[in-house]
Amino acid sequence: MTIIFILIGCSLLLAVGFLIAFIWSVRSGQIDDTTTPGYRILEEDTEV
Amino acid sequence: MSKTLETLSCFHCGDTCQNAVIHLEDHVFCCEGCKTVFQILQENSLCRYYEMDANAGLKMDKPLAPGKYAFLDNPELSEPLYQFKKEQRARVQFFIPEMHCASCIWLLERLYKLLPGVLESRVNFDRKEVAIQFNPEEVTLRQLVEKLSALGYEPALNARREEKKNYRSLLNRLGVAGFCAGNIMLFSFPEYLGMDPQSHDNFAEVFKWLNVSLSLPVVFYSAQPFFVQAWKGLRYKNLNIDFPLALGIATLFVRSILEVVFHWGPGFFDSLSALVFFLLIGRWLQDRAYDSLSFDRDFRSYFPLAVELISEDPDGTEANYISLSRLKVGQVIRVRNQELIPADCLLISGDAYIDYSFVNGESEIEKIDTGRMIHAGGRQLGGAVLLQVARPVSESYLSALWNQQEKKEGEETIKTFSDHVGRYFTLALVLIAVATLVYWLPVDPYKAFSAFTAVLIVACPCVLVVAAPFAFGNAMRWLAKKGIYLKNPDTVEKAARVNEVVFDKTGTLTEGSARIRELFNELNSEERSLAAGLFSQSSHPVSRMMLRYLGTAKKVDGVTFTEIPGKGIEALVGADKWKLGSEKWILGTAESVGESAVCIAKNGKFLAHFAINWQFRDDLDTLFSNWDLPRSLYSGDRPTSENILQKWFSDNQLHFECSPEDKLNALREKRLEGAFPMMVGDGLNDAGALKEAWLGVAITEDVHSFTPACDVILVGKSIHTLPKFLRFCRNTLKTVKFSFIFSLVYNLTWMTFAVRGELQPLVAALLMPISSITVFSINTLGIRYFAKKEGIQ
């Protein structure tokens, strides 16, 4: 059952990875504005 | 033909084309401005703008004043607008109030196509902001601003914005709390499933310590704001709303650590971390809701100011009023005695004695030499001065001066009321929680701690603190739509408590026209125009009336001018000493038949005597027909028009021949008797009385006399809305109180469960944000309902 400890370690590492990803996204300002990107995706750049 | 005209709507802005219709290709436009914008877009093949939202454009019928933004070429003035500036790259962020749809975003983010030198533009739609990076060597800030304005997206350069609220740290705390809470819950599974801790290789022991380590960031990082706020409160010997939360978290944490260390049990780490997680979510939602509203309030409730513009001809007396926002650099404006300087100006002529007390709080009066700069926000004392605008200032700047006025003494607003409630409530809450703990401890120690924390969390009156300012800000916004401008949100509560109303007559109940009779007139034509010139210096309604009556005013130079409140004007023109004012002051007696009378004397020689009968406003019947408060009238005039006033006032409510001091004293007496009198008067001449009153309402005719001495500014033609205004404020206060009661009942109900130990701290943390959201909804919907009911919409 020692394998459990390794699994716990893995799962924690994975979760920490996601936490770091979240903190990075907050820091880089991705969550500052949650409305405009929704409009932006509707714009189709047809110009050459 | 007329039928087709009606259906024609402008391709750019969607407005119905009324008179001149401009055709271009297949499209019609309502004005040249709209057509121009269309052409700009077409040249740059940006016509997709119209595909995204039909008629997305902004009406462009008011052309931009050339040179309005010339001041941006001055590096000193434009410097503060930059966020960042280097040789080839500069960054600015503009607030653009007109931004309203997807097309706006699309166009603003394609600014680089319209203006070479723009590197990138990014829109934040929620905040109506655009961040623009550009190359200052290719395009100047002025060109940038002018381009935006030409497209209809004029940035509000002077809008004072609160420092951008930073959600980032809150979000980080939220993320950490969520991460820890999730994992702690995972490691609590053996506990939930009732596994035997002894049988499986010390799993239980390992999991416990994992939980301890995961709970550390929750308590010391995520929950930090609660501890910091609670500590700040304690330092000022104040139990604030964060205190119970901090106490609950700390107790759970310490208790859990003890359990683990002494092998009593697994601790409450799962409850603790989930609790912090939910509390942070609640706080985040609450902040967002509050923010979006205060944003609206700040930009929709400004008082529209106007200034008196002098035509190009310097000798001209023809005056017209334009709105402050359209004031251009180089224009000449006239500012009279007691009026506020609306923009940074150069003094052209006249004696300027400027009182800067609104700006810097010092009551020293500064004499300004001709050609020198006078700063916005100063108040002119003395005769009228002509000023040339050097730099326009936004309305928000002057409004800010109005708002920051110090509070009157002994003023108690509901904010402090909610502070009181908060404090006693918190104290009671802590006591109840402790009692619960003491009661349960001998019975069931596990239950004791969870009950203790549940009580602290579920009954937390967090929302009380933000509910009142939120509701009042909302009400203020509704009122501004109706031409009633409040100094600040707290004014709503003050208005709700008004229980007596004092009116001034001239300029308040009467409008700006009157019948003037000449009782005696020995003025020759030169003296006549000179007298008119002297009257034109003053902002008193009588002076304005006399100016209109006497006609052409002579430009008066080299005059020493003093205006004595309640008496009149004293001036030295060359060697002649002029006195223009009340009979009592000049003749020593009052005998004429008019309501008010004006005498003119030169070097002690009595020259002219006029009787003035004022015209009452049309809508006074509406005003007084649904009036439910005691009212009275204090006038400086004599009681000849009493028969008209008796329609609305009984004899003992009418007071005549009051000096400004008499009015002030009358109000002071009423205050001392414990009443909350509202004074309705002319902002400039009743300034003292307005200040002394519980609530000062200034009536303005042409929205140009901005007087910081009052709490409310009401446009003259909407005076009949006064009863509605008071009723609306009372109902707003009722709504707020109702939401308070609701939240108390809600909290108490759940507290009864918590005290009995039937509520998990986790559930308590879920219940709390629900109460916050309900209180916000009650306030928003309630106020909207009352606004509709009073027709304020």
Identify the notable features of this structure and list them briefly.
heterodimer, A: 48 residues, mainly alpha, B: alpha+beta, 6-stranded antiparallel sheet, 28 helices, 28 strands, globular
Total beta-strand segments of chain A: 0
**Helix and strand string of chain A, N-terminal first?**
HH
| Low-confidence region ranges of chain B | 1-6, 159-163, 313-318, 406-412
What is the average of the pLDDT values of chain A? 83
> How many helical stretches of chain B?
28
Sheet/helix structural class of chain A: mainly alpha
For the secondary structure, the number of strands of chain B is 28
Give a topology summary.
The complex is a heterodimer of chains A (48) and B (793).
Chain A (H helix, E strand, L loop, with lengths): L2 H25 L8 H5 L8
Chain B lengths: L1 H6 L14 E3 L2 E3 L2 H12 L4 H5 L22 H4 L3 E4 L4 E6 L6 H7 L2 H4 L3 E7 L4 E6 L6 H10 L17 H20 L1 H4 L10 H20 L1 H12 L6 H20 L7 H32 L5 E5 L8 E5 L8 E4 L8 E6 L2 E4 L1 H4 L4 E4 L4 E2 L4 E3 L3 E7 L3 H9 L10 H27 L4 H14 L3 H20 L2 E3 L3 H7 L3 E4 L6 E12 L3 H11 L5 H10 L8 E6 L3 E6 L2 E6 L1 H4 L9 E7 L2 E12 L3 H6 L5 E4 L7 H4 L8 E2 L4 H13 L4 E6 L4 H6 L2 E6 L11 E4 L6 H34 L5 H29 L4
Parallel strand pairs in B: 17-24, 17-26, 24-25, 26-27, 27-28
Antiparallel strand pairs in B: 1-2, 3-4, 4-6, 5-6, 7-8, 7-9, 9-15, 10-13, 10-15, 11-12, 11-14, 16-28, 18-23, 19-20, 20-21, 21-22, 22-23
How would you describe this protein?
The complex is a heterodimer of chains A (48) and B (793). Chain A has 48 residues and is mainly alpha-helical. Chain A has two helices and no strands. Chain A has helices spanning 3-27, 36-40. The longest helix of chain A is centred in the first third of the chain and has 25 residues, at 3-27. The radius of gyration of chain A is 19 Å and the shape is elongated. In chain A, 0% of the residues are buried. Chain B is an alpha+beta fold and 793 residues long. In chain B, 45% of the residues lie in helices and 19% in strands. Chain B has a seven-stranded mixed β-sheet. Chain B has a six-stranded antiparallel β-sheet with strand order 8-7-9-15-10-13, with no helix packed on it. In chain B, a hairpin with a 3-residue loop joins β19 (559-564) and β20. In chain B, α8 packs antiparallel against α10 (203-222), α11 crosses α12 (242-261) and α18 (462-481) crosses α19 (490-496). The longest helix of chain B has 34 residues, at 722-755. Chain B is globular, with a radius of gyration of 33 Å. The two termini of chain B are 35 Å apart. Residues 1-6, 159-163, 313-318 and 406-412 of chain B have low confidence and may be disordered. The A-B interface holds A 1-2, 4-5, 8, 11-12, 15-16, 18-19, 22-23, 26-27, 31-36, 39-40, 42-43, 46-47 and B 45, 48, 52, 102, 105-106, 109, 122-127, 167-168, 171-172, 175-176, 179, 182-183, 186-187, 200-201, 203, 206, 210.
